[in-house]
From TrEMBL:
This is GntR family transcriptional regulator. It comes from Brachybacterium ginsengisoli. The keyword Hydrolase does not apply. The keyword Flavoprotein does not apply. Pfam families: FCD (PF07729), GntR (PF00392). Residues 31-98 form the HTH gntR-type domain.
Length: 240
């Protein structure tokens, strides 16, 4: 199975850093080894190639990618710190599956950060190029029927809101929950429970409010957008 992976950055990754080969081993590209390894594992976890509950050990990573154990360990620690893996005492790290209470808390946290970002941008009427680029890329992914692309560019859009504030501290705080946001998008495939154009349209409402400098409308559109996403994920959990 072939997988295109990427180099981690604030808000997403750049395609092409790692490619799986037919033997089942994973060859890392010329980018920073640690970053490429992190990006490849994150991609596999988010898209379910490494399933919820599946163990991800240092030895497994070292064998699959041909890296040293210390490099594998550092990567697993980073994935754990971002919520993409969980490790309990004396047990190997594994991919978590968030329960309903954790999902509720995650969306509460998302709205806190992203609403503040949307309001800040609206006050300044600052619709950044990063936001419009992410939205355009998502629209193209919808036209192609590219589900993975839709997920990634949706992630990029929300990161662009946070990055638009130009606050290093806000970005660092958002990164703490970003891993779990990505995880829920991939695991619960909530985008498949609605028309892809619906999500694009909801993004447009947020963008319109920012462009017009309407703070209340920006906050309301963001809250409605995340509320609908929350409902889709919760429905998936309830359906089992």
């Amino acid at each position: 199975m072939l997988l295109a992976d990427g180099v981690a950055r604030a808000g997403g990754w750049t395609e092409g850093a790692a490619v799986a080969i037919a033997t089942g081993q994973y060859k890392l590209g010329p980018a920073s080894l640690t970053e490429a390894l992190f990006a490849s594992l994150r991609e596999r976890i988010i898209n379910g190639d490494i399933a919820p509950g599946e163990k991800v050990t240092e030895q497994r990573v070292a064998d699959e990618y041909g890296v040293a154990r210390p490099t594998a360990k550092a990567c697993l620690e980073r994935l754990t710190s971002l919520g993409l893996l969980r490790r309990t005492a004396h047990r190997s790290a594994s991919v978590p599956l968030l329960d309903a209470a954790e999902i509720d808390d995650l969306f509460f946290s998302r709205q806190t950060f992203e609403s503040a970002a949307a309001a800040h941008l609206a006050r300044a009427k600052d619709l950044t190029e990063e936001i419009t680029t992410a939205q355009e890329a998502m629209r193209h992914a919808v036209e192609r029927g590219d589900f993975r692309g839709q997920v990634q560019h949706d992630i990029d859009f929300h990161w662009a809101l946070v990055n638009g504030v130009r606050s290093d501290r806000l970005a660092r705080m958002y990164e703490i929950i970003a891993g779990e946001i990505h995880l829920t998008m991939g695991q619960f495939a909530a985008h498949r429970r609605t028309s892809p154009t619906t999500v694009v349209g909801e993004h447009e409402e947020i963008m319109d409010a920012i462009r017009e400098g309407d703070v209340e409308a920006a906050e309301a559109a963001l809250a409605e957008h995340l509320g609908r996403a929350h409902e889709r994920v919760t429905a998936q959990i309830t359906a089992g």
